[in-house]
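ARCHIVE CARD
Drawer: 12
Card no.: 0347
Subject: one protein chain, sequence and derived structure
Cross-reference: see card 0346
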Amino acid sequence: MESAIFRAKNRSELKLLIDLAKRLGVKAKWLTQEDLEDFGLAKAIKSGKSGKLIDTEEFLESIE
């Protein structure tokens, strides 16, 4: 499955893209602000994930 996210200058341009997608048989959905925040958070978690374990005490000291 492939996906894309569009950001338009205004709602009418975005509606045109979504209507076209639906006519072509492509599923399209409006995203809420919460959906966008969830996407951004998931992306940040994925990019920050290194697979390495850190020392908890050292980390806590670094944020104080």
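Annotation on reverse: The chain has a mean pLDDT of 89. The longest helix spans residues 33-48.
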